[in-house]
């Protein structure tokens, strides 16, 4: 009887890592690469970017002179930046989407 318990326990311990790998990852992590979404629609959500990180992320998306960044109560960073010869309103959401107002 004891051998059966040991075998069952051993099987359960060996199967645990396999089961843990089948759990889907959360899909709300901030993205690490800069990209631009020109739809004017930043998504609300808990934003963990600091002001310096937000400025850097927007700059990596092709904007210069990023200024006036403030985070609103929805977790979206807003400010202005230059894209080519134009100054535009930019926003950075919790997923790293950089959008411009139309």
Describe this structure in words.
This protein has 102 residues and is of the alpha+beta class. It has one domain (28-100). It has helices spanning 2-21, 51-60; strands at 35-36, 64-71, 77-83, 86-92, 97-100. Strand 2 and strand 3 (77-83) form a beta hairpin. This is PepSY domain-containing protein. Keywords: Signal. Residues 1-20 form the signal peptide.
SSE order in H/E notation?
HEHEEEE
* Total E-strand runs: 5
Count helical runs.
Answer: 2
- Unreliable segments (pLDDT under 50, ≥5 consecutive)? 22-29
Return the structural class. Answer: alpha+beta
When the domains are counted, the total is 1
| Physical arrangement of strands within the biggest beta sheet | 1-5-4-3-2
Radius of gyration: 22 Å
Overall 3D form:
elongated
Signal peptide: 1-20
Protein name: PepSY domain-containing protein
Organism: Sphingomonas glacialis
Keywords: Signal
Summary?
The protein is of the alpha+beta class and 102 residues long. The chain contains two helices and five strands; from the N terminus they run H-E-H-E-E-E-E.
List the topology elements:
Layout: H1 2-21, E1 35-36, H2 51-60, E2 64-71, E3 77-83, E4 86-92, E5 97-100
Parallel strand pairs: 1-5
Antiparallel strand pairs: 2-3, 3-4, 4-5
